[in-house]
Design goal:
It is a single chain. The protein is of the alpha/beta class and about 400 residues long. It has 2 domains: about 230 residues, Alanine racemase (TIM Barrel); about 120 residues, Lyase, Ornithine Decarboxylase, Chain A, domain 1. Helix content is about 30%, strand content about 25%. It has 12 helices and 18 strands. The longest helix is centred in the middle third of the chain and has 19 residues. The chain is globular, with a radius of gyration of 23 Å. Belongs to the Orn/Lys/Arg decarboxylase class-II family. LysA subfamily. Keywords: Amino-acid biosynthesis, Decarboxylase, Lyase, Lysine biosynthesis, Pyridoxal phosphate. Its cofactor is pyridoxal 5'-phosphate. It holds the Pfam family Orn_DAP_Arg_deC.
Length: about 400
């Protein structure tokens, strides 16, 4: 998506605006499937939490993807998008037994990550096979907030609690049909991923009714020029050999699953904002834009980097700016960034805005959530309207206060 197109979309649909490139999503999906082409049964389940717009889900349905969900609402979105129940896996954390029961009644694959719910579910529904999420106690991920496989994490059943899982299975007669793990996001070191895989495969051999092994995701994408990312091709070659060897040892062809989110949609997204004010202080030049952490919270929450460039004046003389939002708290998108000269009214573009951006947006300061656009086969489609004042009041109940 070139600058001229993005500027025209900003003019057409208004600002701020999320724009997604379907071509990039498709190429990333095909890149993973090609990397693991030597695995006889491969299943990618797109992580809905990354970007849950139903048009994005429909695109993945067209690609023959499954989906990974973490809430009953995401499950229902998947069904609404046309996914069959058997193409949906439900991997929640800390939810009630009632929510898991509701999902189970829809025919979706259940993934359980604690002994208490496993025992309760197995007692009431011993005939419904479930997957179990294992915590391998491996620290991995680009930030401690997105590292979920270490010993202090709330996610998964500890690798040291396998005897408890076996006891529950024996006492309830339930069937474990899958083993799952996810150690974190932005994993760069392939050897760390393979180490976690080895732990899971050693665990899996003790379960005799498996149909699949789900190794999560966490593949890193580049955030800036010259940045490095997970070598998915090398990982595919090395992991495929190990998995195929395990299947022979297990005596059965299992399905290898992944649940990528960021890897599939992050680079496809651009977030467009207008510059309201260029403010010179004694030490800094601020470019204040018509957005804030109500629309894009990742830099404030995870210290994540989003490359920012001026698509209205791409060839201007480069200067240093701190790009900030309009929220009445500190909401700095980028400090001391070298950007082509910014003028009031210019359109700035934030890269890597396809994952965990709109999906984490809010109405803080009573601001509207922005519109979303999908560029597909050379044509732009509005896939979410900008909110209105009526949307802010929609679920509020006004009472008479005298």
């Amino acid at each position: 998506m070139e600058n001229q197109l993005l500027v025209s979309l900003s003019e057409k649909y208004g600002s701020p605006l999320y724009v997604y490139d379907a071509e990039k999503i498709i190429s990333q999906y095909n890149r993973i499937t090609s990397a693991f082409a030597n695995v006889k049964s491969l299943k990618l389940n797109y992580a809905v939490k990354a970007n849950s717009n139903i048009s994005i889900l429909k695109l993945f349905k067209k690609l023959n993807s499954g989906i990974d969900t973490v809430s009953i609402q995401e499950v229902k979105l998947g069904l609404e998008a046309g996914f069959a129940p058997e193409d949906i896996i439900f991997t929640p954390n800390g939810v009630s037994l009632e929510e898991i029961e509701e999902v189970a009644k829809l025919g979706v694959q259940i993934n359980i990550d604690n002994i208490s719910i496993l025992e309760q579910f197995g007692y009431h529904y011993p005939n419904i096979p479930v997957c179990v999420r294992i915590n391998p106690h491996i620290m991995a991920g680009g930030n401690h907030k997105i590292s979920v496989g270490h010993i202090d994490s709330k996610f998964g059943i500890s690798i040291h609690q396998l005897p408890l899982i076996n006891r529950v299975v024996d006492n309830t007669g339930m069937t474990i049909n899958g083993i799952h793990t996810h150690t974190g996001s932005d994993i760069l070191d392939i050897d760390v991923f393979l180490a976690a895989t080895e732990i899971i495969l050693n665990t899996a051999k003790d379960f005799k009714d498996l149909e699949f092994i789900d190794l999560g995701s966490g593949f890193k994408v580049p955030y800036k020029e010259g940045d490095i990312s997970t070598n998915i091709e090398e990982l595919g070659e090395r992991l495929s050999k190990r998995f195929n060897k395990f299947c022979k040892e297990y005596g059965k062809e299992l399905t290898l699953m992944f649940e990528p989110g960021k890897f599939l949609v992050s680079e496809a997204g651009s977030f467009l904002v207008n510059v309201n004010v260029v403010k010179q202080t004694t030490s800094t030049v601020f470019a204040s834009v018509d957005s804030g952490f109500n629309h894009l919270i990742r830099p404030m929450m995870y210290d994540s980097y989003h490359h920012i460039h001026n698509i209205s004046n791409p060839n201007g003389r480069e200067r240093y700016y701190s790009v900030v939002g309009y929220i009445c708290e500190t909401d700095t998108f980028g400090s001391n960034r070298r950007i082509s000269e910014i003028r009031e009214g210019d359109v700035l573009c934030f890269n890597n805005a396809g994952a965990y951006c709109f999906s984490m947006s809010s109405n803080y300061n009573s601001r509207f959530k922005p519109a979303e656009v999908l560029v597909y086969n050379g044509k732009d489609y509005l896939i979410r309207k900008e909110e209105t004042f009526e949307d802010l009041l929609k679920n509020q109940i006004i009472i008479d206060i005298e």
